[in-house]
Amino acid sequence: MNIEEFRDFCLSLKGVTEELPFGPDTLVYKVMGKMFALTGIDSEIFTVNLKCDPDKAIQLREEFHYITAGFHMNKKHWNTVNAEIASSKQLKELTEHSYQLVVSGLPKKVQAEFQNL
């Protein structure tokens, strides 16, 4: 999966926006205003930071050499995935996991707004 395909996939999810809050070089994907994925636009290697359940994060890092603790993120809750090595299927699954974690953590009022989209 390349960065354009990743972008299209993220934007296909309900309630997602694409933003540049950290400057012009970092794409950030948010659901209902909360970040679930980010990637550098001009990086030599296409990597993605994704939120992850802490126990699953450790398991993934142990199992896959291309998944590491989140670069510049809370390493307990974020992983960095080398998207050039991960399969498209795995990257989509990990992105959906991140997305669902964020959605499930939204306040009830925001979750209600999300359901009505």
Keywords summarizing the entry:
single chain, 117 residues, alpha+beta, Aspartate Aminotransferase, domain 1, 6-stranded antiparallel beta sheet, 38% helix
Task: Give an overview in words.
It is a single chain. With 117 residues, the protein is α+β, with helices and mostly antiparallel strands. The protein has a single domain, classed as Alpha-Beta Complex (Aspartate Aminotransferase, domain 1), CATH 3.90.1150.30. Helix content is 38%, strand content 26%. It has helices spanning 3-12, 54-63, 88-104, 108-115, and strands at residues 16-19, 26-31, 34-40, 47-51, 67-69, 78-82. The chain is globular. The protein starts with a helix and ends with a helix. The model has no long low-confidence stretch (mean pLDDT 96).
Beta-strand percent range:
25-35%
CATH secondary-structure class: Alpha Beta
Query: Taking all residues together, what is the mean pLDDT?
Result: 96
The percent of residues in helical segments reads 25-40%
Tally of alpha and pi helices = 4
Q: Spatial order of the strands in the main sheet?
A: 1-2-3-4-6-5
Give me the secondary-structure category. alpha+beta
CATH domain fold name: Aspartate Aminotransferase, domain 1
Strand count? 6
- Annotated CATH architecture: Alpha-Beta Complex
Distance between the ends: 28 Å
Radius of gyration: 14 Å
Order of helices and strands: HEEEEHEEHH
Low-confidence regions: none
Shape: globular
Main beta sheet strand tally, sense and closure: 6 strands, antiparallel
When the domains are counted, the total is: 1
Set out the fold topology.
Elements: H1 3-12, E1 16-19, E2 26-31, E3 34-40, E4 47-51, H2 54-63, E5 67-69, E6 78-82, H3 88-104, H4 108-115
Antiparallel strand pairs: 1-2, 2-3, 3-4, 4-6, 5-6
